[in-house]
Amino acid sequence: MVATSGKRGRPPKGQAAADRLPQGGPVQTAAQVGLTLGLAERTVRRYAASGQLHSLRLAPRVVRFAGACVTAHLHGRSCAELRYADEVLTAEQAADLLGVGLATLLNAAHQAIVPCLRAGNSLRFSRAALLVALCPPSLPSPGPTGGLAQH
Fold it and tell me: Which GO terms describe its molecular function (predicted)?
């Protein structure tokens, strides 16, 4: 379990929620994808905005990527065949999985950016549905080079 400050699942002072995401985990930030692909974070964000990399924009400055999708595209494979184990998560667990704050996740759920189920006064999230939302199989694959220009 990751240490929190006790205030609504926030990370300790001086630590951003994205800093808790492990490198090579199921969810990655633009900086982590940049390290994997050997690109600047700005370039990764530009590729995501243009649709050349599958991503999920949770807030204006918060973009997340599925690690398995990035790896598949890096090796020239389609991400349409990716399958994820299903598990029901609380809002706090889902926020930890995506590396965002609880408020950001709840706002994204309210705007129907991330799939969720209301159970009484709480929200429940499917781990598989969250990971599929990062790289939806309904979108065409960016191509054999992952949509990235080869130099």
Answer: DNA binding
